[in-house]
């Protein structure tokens, strides 16, 4: 029990002990190592961390957003998912149409200035309301550009054709399981300038053996405290869904990282988490009446036996 979660906690300890202190794009600062791999046996249980609560509903709704090929945060907000808000909000406050209070460097200012944090939250609520209620505003400021969903479902070629990578990889797994080309890439160099955030989880590959489906993710940039627990659960869920559709059992999720880092303002939270004991992993149940991953909705997932330690809050670096 907990071998995968122990590997995660070992990574946290490795970074705190051996990581290099580095500046970063967000001006927050990180402790970082380069090149790390963790393995999760999905037959042991669903790898949702137990040393802190990870909100499965947010993981699942974000994954469904990717699967739908959507790039606008309206769907996420409709499902009470706020994890991409800051990047879309940044587009609005940097536009000529924004007339509100100065929001420069809001990601860092909200951590040290309670009064500014109140103003920020007011502006964020205005922004979210506009996304949900104003179609024109949502189209202009809710869209994050050619991020994950676009690349997974509608990769545009130089011949102006469109490739549905996700659909093709499912067909490949079903009809040519021994192929070494079960790959989906989110890293499209031509589209990087149009993305709110270039993809951190850049490429994933599937592998079929002994009637089991395994998945390996390469993640160029890994926010170990906030992002990685989501990434583990998201790709584990994706593996379950595709195994379900193709009539396979689940095998392993292999998580390979480039720059694995802990932000300098997450250190105490990480230490708190490392002091906690690992608990029994939950079990994932899928709606057996749904076969195609493109038909699944949030109500088609059930997580049984999830009894984690409490949530540990930390600021997100934008």
Automatic annotation (TrEMBL):
UniProt cross-references to Pfam families, sorted A to Z: Thymidylat_synt (PF00303)
Keywords: Cytoplasm, Methyltransferase, Nucleotide biosynthesis, Transferase
GO molecular function: thymidylate synthase activity
Superkingdom of origin: Bacteria
Residue intervals of the Thymidylate synthase/dCMP hydroxymethylase domain: 6-318
Pathway: Pyrimidine metabolism; dTTP biosynthesis
GO terms classed as biological process: methylation
Enzyme Commission number(s): 2.1.1.45
Coiled-coil region(s): none
Subunit structure: Homodimer.
Membership in a protein family: Belongs to the thymidylate synthase family. Bacterial-type ThyA subfamily.
Protein name: Thymidylate synthase
Organism whose genome encodes this protein: Ornithinibacillus xuwenensis
């Amino acid at each position: 029990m907990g071998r995968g979660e122990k590997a995660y906690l070992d990574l946290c300890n490795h970074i705190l002990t051996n990581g290099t202190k580095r500046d970063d794009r967000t001006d927050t600062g990180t402790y970082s190592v380069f090149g790390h791999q963790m393995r999760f046996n999905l037959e042991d249980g669903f790898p949702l961390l137990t040393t802190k609560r990870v909100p499965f509903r947010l993981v699942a709704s974000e994954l469904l957003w990717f699967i739908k090929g959507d790039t606008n945060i309206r769907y996420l907000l409709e499902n009470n998912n706020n994890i991409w808000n800051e990047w879309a909000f940044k587009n609005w406050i940097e536009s000529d149409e924004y007339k509100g209070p100065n929001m420069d460097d809001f990601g860092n200012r909200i951590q040290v200035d309670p009064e500014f944090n109140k103003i920020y939250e007011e502006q964020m609520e205005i922004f979210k309301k506009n996304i949900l209620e104003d179609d024109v505003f949502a189209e202009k400021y809710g869209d994050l550009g050619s991020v994950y969903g676009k690349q997974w479902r509608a990769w545009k070629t130089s011949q102006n054709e469109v490739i549905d990578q996700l659909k093709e990889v499912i067909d490949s797994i079903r009809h040519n399981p021994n192929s070494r080309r079960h790959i989906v890439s989110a890293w499209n160099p031509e589209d990087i300038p149009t993305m709110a955030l270039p993809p951190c989880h850049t490429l994933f590959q599937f592998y079929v053996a002994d009637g089991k489906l395994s998945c390996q993710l390469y993640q160029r940039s890994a926010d170990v405290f906030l992002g990685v627990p989501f990434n583990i659960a998201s790709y584990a869920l994706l593996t379950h869904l595709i195994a379900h559709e193709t009539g396979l059992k689940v095998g392993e999720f292999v998580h390979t990282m480039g720059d694995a880092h802990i932000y300098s303002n997450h250190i105490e939270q990480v230490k708190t988490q490392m002091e906690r004991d690992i608990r029994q992993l939950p079990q994932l149940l899928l709606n057996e009446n749904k076969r195609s991953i493109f038909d699944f909705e949030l109500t088609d997932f059930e997580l049984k036996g999830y009894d984690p330690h409490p949530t540990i809050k930390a600021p997100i670096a934008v």
